[in-house]
Design goal:
This protein is an alpha+beta fold and about 350 residues long. Helices cover about 40% and strands about 20% of the residues. It is built from eleven helices and twelve strands.
Length: about 350
C-alpha cells in the first residue's frame, strides 16, 4: 500500500514527514492492522509505502487505516459571525452565499457610480457643444450680463430649446463650469472630436446598463476574472465530499482470544484457563445465550459477568443477514413451544 500525502511536498513549510511515517504505527502496535514494514520513498512529493504481513488483505487494511489512523481527516468548520449585531453560526456555504450577495451589491454600486459619471460627462459635453455651436458665448445679452445671476437667467433662456435632449435639468453650477472655460479652448473646439468622444461614452453607457440588467452574469464573470488573475498557485487543497463511513468493527483484525466460564457466567479475554470461544478484536461485541432463555449483547472486555449457565456465545456482527438466531420458548404448564 502506498500512502501519497496529496498536495504535500517534502519542502513544504510546517510539513512533518516523521508524523506521516508514524501514522500506521499505533494501530499496528495495538493489533488493529498487521504491518511488515514502512518504507519512505519521499522525493519531491511525499510517498510512504506500507508493506503488509503475509495473508493480510490490502483492501481491508486500507479501510482499517481510515478507521484507526489519521490518514484522512475531516474538517467541519463551525464558524461564528456577527450578523445584524448578533452572533450566528454559519456553514461555509452560508458564508459564501452571504459574501457573494454582498459582492454583487458592491458591484452594482460600482456600476451605478460609473453610469452616473458617464452620464455627467455626456451631459457637460453636450452643454459645451451647444454653448459653442450656437454661439451663446457671443450673445450680446450674455456678454452684457452684469453678474452671475443674470448670466444664469440668460443662459437658461438660450438653452430652453435644447433642454429636452438633456438627461437632467441644468443647474447653476453647470453654467459656472461653462463660464470658467477659457476662451482659447472655446475657439479651438473640435466638433468631430467631441462627437466621437460622446459616442464612445454612450457606447460605454450601453455596456454598463447591460451589466446592470444582467447583474448575476456580470458578478459571475467578475469572480472568474479574479480567479484567472489571482488563482494560479492557490488551487483547492481539500475535497468537498461526504466521508465514506468505515465501521471499525468490520475492519479490525482478530487480535485477542475470547474465553467463557459457562457455569459461573463470565466471559472475556482474560479467562485463559476457561473454555475457548474464538478469536475476536478488542472492539467487537459478543452475543451470549443462557439456559433461562435470556440473551445479552456486550462489548469484549477482560472479564464480564453475563449471567450463569451460558449455553452459547460468539462474536456478534451487526447487520449480518446470513446469521439467524432462533429462540424457542416452551410453556411449562402446557408444554407448548413458541
Amino acid at each position: 500500500i502506498t500512502l501519497q500525502v496529496r498536495y504535500l511536498k517534502n519542502a513544504d513549510i510546517g510539513f512533518n514527514k516523521n508524523a506521516v511515517l508514524m501514522l500506521p504505527v499505533p494501530a499496528n502496535d495495538k493489533g488493529k492492522i498487521k504491518i511488515k514494514k514502512i518504507e519512505d520513498n519521499t522525493a519531491a512529493n511525499v510517498e510512504i509505502v506500507v508493506h503488509l504481513a503475509p495473508g493480510i488483505s490490502p483492501d481491508v487494511t486500507i479501510d482499517a487505516l481510515y478507521a484507526f489512523t489519521n490518514c484522512e481527516v475531516s474538517i467541519s468548520p463551525n464558524t461564528c459571525v456577527i450578523k445584524e449585531d448578533k452572533p450566528h453560526f454559519l456553514s461555509v456555504n452560508d458564508i459564501l452565499e452571504q459574501n457573494t450577495k454582498f459582492t454583487k451589491a458592491l458591484l452594482k454600486q460600482e456600476l451605478e457610480i460609473r453610469l452616473h459619471e458617464l452620464q455627467e460627462r455626456v451631459f457637460f459635453s453636450s452643454l459645451l457643444k451647444i454653448f459653442i455651436q450656437e454661439g451663446m458665448y457671443k450673445n450680446s445679452e450674455y456678454e452684457n450680463s452684469g453678474d452671475f445671476e443674470n448670466v444664469v437667467e440668460v443662459l437658461h433662456r438660450l438653452f430652453e430649446p435644447f433642454k429636452a435632449s438633456l438627461y437632467r435639468e441644468i443647474q447653476p453650477e453647470d453654467f459656472k463650469k461653462l463660464i470658467d472655460k477659457p476662451m482659447s479652448s472655446i475657439t479651438r473646439f473640435d466638433v468631430k472630436k467631441a462627437d466621437d468622444m460622446m459616442k464612445s461614452l454612450e457606447d460605454e453607457m450601453k455596456v454598463v446598463r447591460g451589466h446592470l440588467r444582467h447583474l448575476t452574469d456580470y458578478t459571475i464573470a467578475w469572480f472568474e476574472k479574479i480567479k484567472a488573475k489571482y488563482g494560479k498557485g492557490r488551487e483547492r487543497k481539500t475535497e468537498i465530499r461526504l466521508f465514506d463511513r468505515v465501521e471499525a468493527a468490520k475492519v479490525a483484525l482478530a487480535n485477542v482470544k475470547l474465553y467463557m466460564n459457562r457455569e459461573d457466567g463470565f466471559i472475556g479475554t482474560g479467562l485463559k484457563k476457561d473454555e475457548f470461544v474464538g478469536d475476536c478484536s478488542d472492539i467487537d461485541e459478543i452475543i451470549v445465550f443462557r439456559e433461562d432463555g435470556r440473551f445479552i449483547v456486550t462489548k469484549v472486555a477482560d472479564k464480564t459477568f453475563v449471567g450463569k449457565n451460558i449455553i452459547h456465545a460468539q462474536v456478534f456482527k451487526k447487520g449480518d443477514e446470513r446469521t439467524v438466531y432462533n429462540m424457542i420458548y416452551k410453556d411449562g404448564s402446557s408444554g407448548i413451544s413458541y
